[in-house]
Fold this protein.
Amino acid sequence: MLFYIWFDWQSAEIKFNLISDYDTALPFGCEIEITNRLESIIEDFLRFPYHDGFPFEEVRNDDEQMEEVVEGETLRVFLLKINR
């Protein structure tokens, strides 16, 4: 079994999952960073400024995110840090 933990920025929660180690591909559609320090994920959670919700002015829609293209390459919008 593979146990992993991540901080979900959209829900402002620390989440975990347990999957079979037969296929260790994690089910995320974004770029991920594997870390061996659980503390870094907890620190990200504690430093997160929006535990009570996001201010409306800071919410972006998908069209705005798609505009972040430089020389034909889409910039990385989000990097998910995972401890496993």
